[in-house]
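Study this pair:
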Amino acid sequence: MVISTTINYDTAPRYHNSLPAAPDAPVCAGTGRERTKGVARGSTASIKCLVEAEPAEDITWSWVRKGVDGTMEELPNEDVRVDGLSSSIIVTPTTPEDYGRFLCRAANSIGRQREACVMTLVPVGPPDTPTNCSVSPADPSTVHASPTTAALTVTCFEGFDGGLPQYFTLETWQDNDLVANMTR
């Protein structure tokens, strides 16, 4: 057994050792207990849950789907895959109601996980085209250009983002030549 002590005059001693962790009920592994995953309608996705626990043997799992309408549905054990400290389910959303939050909890001989690990399944797909675009002269006080340069303001309404971050590209053409392009 190796134990080392660090003495700090401002705090109590801290002990660092190579002993196994103290027995504890499972907790979500990683930095956060909530994650988001985008899945296209009709596509199959694996939702994985990973926990830390001591002891790490004989872990049991339960999964619940919380629909977008707030309904709760316990997933049957035959839909749950288990591999030690991880568990997963396979989902294929076909309707908007198939999306929502999936909550998993693990238990060991010490106890049941207090806070569920949460995966929010959101729809992804092709984004909508920007609509209702308008072009107007730019306010000269906000434009950093030479006096001989014309400046325009382009305003559009964005639609559904496809479930993922969106970037827009604007190209300016004159006499079949690309004059400028911008991405935001």
